[in-house]
Hints:
The structure holds 2 protein chains of 2 kinds. Chain A is of the alpha+beta class. Chain A has helices spanning 5-11, 30-36, 40-43, 48-51, 56-72, 121-162, 182-188, 198-201, 203-206, 210-220, 271-305, 312-334, 342-354, 372-391, 436-443; strands at 16-20, 25-28, 76-86, 92-106, 109-119, 166-171, 176-180, 224-233, 242-254, 260-269, 340-341, 361-365, 369-370, 401-408, 415-423, 453-458, 461-469.
Amino acid sequence: MNIDFEQVLGLSPNPYVLMDSDLQLVWMNDAYLRATMRERGAIIGRKMFEAFPSEGESFQLLSSSLEHVLKTGEPDEIALIRYPIQNRDGSVDTHYWSATHTPILRDGSVEFILQHTVNVTEIEKLRQTRDEMGIMRRAQSVQAENLSLKNETKALLDYFEHAPSFTAVLLGPDHRFGAANEAYRKLVGREDLIGQTVASVLPEVVDQGFVTLLDKVYQSGEAYLGQQEELSLAVDGQPEHQKFVLNFVYQPIFDDDGSVSGIIVQGHDVSQEVQAIERQSVLVNELNHRVKNTLSIVQGLAMQSLKDREAEEGRAIFNARLRALAAAHNLLTEAYWKEALVEEIVKATSEAAVGEAIRQFDLDGDRVMLEPQAAVSLAMIVHELCTNALKYGALSSDKGRIKVRWKRDPEAASRFIFSWEEKNGPQVSTPQGTGFGTRLISRGIDQNGEESAIITFDPKGMRYTMRAGYFQQ
Amino acid sequence: MNIAGLEVLLVEDEIIIGFALDDLVSDLGARTTLVTTIENAISTLAVRKFDLAILDVNLHGELTYPLADLLSEQGCLFIFATGYGAVAHPDRFANVPTVSKPYSSTEILAALKQTETT
């Protein structure tokens, strides 16, 4: 079968053009001429880029595709190329093309390139329309975003509205309510705040100095922090003002130019916490009262049980020890049973034990705190040291002196050294046997240290050193 | 119950109460060792065995039940002493005799006697 392919291609509705390796147009079909709106005579024998002048991206795209085919001998496609074509009337229209370049080889090298080109301008226009639709979609999404911002703003406003701390925004120098959340409105017992001034809505706070405070914040631009401040409010129009204890802040709002335009009021009602602390203090006092009462009962029982004349000395010792214990309890109660200062323990206990002889003491030391149990132990130890000194040591003579020191231990963290040195008293000898006092003193107050306390019976005067941990907050 | 000659471990953080307990148990003829912390009790138990022990339940805010477990393992009989009123011990110690402060030698002896039967 002998087919005339030139005729076949020539009749094809698809545009075809054939160029040689110099890109000279050697043949084209009628479809191509229709598509490019050219006469055969005007372009045949001319080079592609002379027949269809182009520059920029389109030229680059087309020439690189053709060069690629010439170089490799392989077909190449241009999916979309923008290529302006001159109309018959001389005007120029932008057209979009899709092109296939097929090499026709002879002896392994490219002799011709067949370009099959399709004008896809209409399709491209459709696509552009679709993209414009895309803009619509983007617009829609911006709209959706706006909606979500709006929702977000609403959510934030909801948080503001339902925040547990009371918050209000006051605007202008006369402090007009710009916003007030639920907690704030509940606190002041009013709903109709917006647009009104603080002084007109809450006249009772004017005399309490709060408006003056607001003025000060507005004028100075400095925030004011109120801690446990009492405030009386006429809640629900009741004649009796209700008392509140509040922690709050007046925070100035600044304009872009740096001047104050308003004040944010934010805080919370700590009335209940303050009441709880007060109640606790009452409880601790009550407990202390009962403990002391119990100590008194113990004292009474002891006195009743040890009535004999022979027990008189014992009664005196017991009474003094009980008083030392009670004094230590007093110190601890003042600090809610949290801690006590060594200085206070030593001073209070010595004074109670020796009376006027306190002037024979030289007391000095660091600021060291003890936890309750250790504080009581130290008080008892100091008491025993005092009674021993009165009986046998430096306080048994007017000339005797006692130097007491308490210092943080430079060699051990959170520990301190307590020392007691007697001098100018009678000559000291090591006592026979161990009574309660010596037993207590030699034990020290350190829970773990069996050897933390050292008693030295120097003939010139008794010396005592004790190491123990102190209380750290 | 005769505790004369027995080795008794006393665990009490309040030293004055510890002294009184020490005197009380010593007067009954026992040989006593007084410790004021759980740490010291554990290190003492590591090197010595005791026939009986009296444990304060709360030492500086720390409960002595782990110590009680250690004593149980060693087969040492023990009782609890406490400054609080009625104390609910963990189930495993529900039957351990417990004396309340202030206690007397009679109460201590009675509680120690109970340990022989439980």
